[in-house]
Amino acid sequence: MQLNHYNTNFKKHKHPIKVICDNVSNAPNIGSLFRISDAFGIEELIFCGEDIQLGKRMNKTSRSTEKYVTHSIKENIENVIEDLKNNNYYLIALEISENSQALNEFKLTTNQPIALILGDENFGVSETILKQVNATVHINMFGNNSSMNVVQATGIALYELTKQLNF
What we know:
Elements: E1 15-22, H1 27-39, E2 42-48, H2 56-62, E3 71-74, H3 77-86, E4 90-94, E5 101-102, E6 114-118, H4 127-130, E7 135-138, H5 150-165
Parallel strand pairs: 1-2, 1-6, 2-3, 4-6, 4-7, 5-7
């Protein structure tokens, strides 16, 4: 028998992870980020940027998870990063860079709460932010493309991070 929302045995659990979105503005992506954040029990979803809209188009993909996921919208990611550092968060950027480490080889060696930083849908995590993080991770890609949709990448990263936290 297939299980549904009402008869699964999943235990609700919050992980000490905040997901920080730098200029992620596509409504379906925003809605899906709410959904994946709910699924992985993250602490908070923070959208940074000037043109972030939570509206009907976002609701279509969020499936009402915005009602359950703690979230906020901040204009300036620099202020968010500074606040996270002051509160002892371990900052991880999800980005392919010269210094990034493959996610499947990355080992969490801290007890600090985590901030997973996602970049702009077109330009990724900025160089300014990459210089401020504790770690940069990427997902190995085996096809012709060198990037992945922000939501799919976030799902993969949250799977790996929560798996490591739960050991």
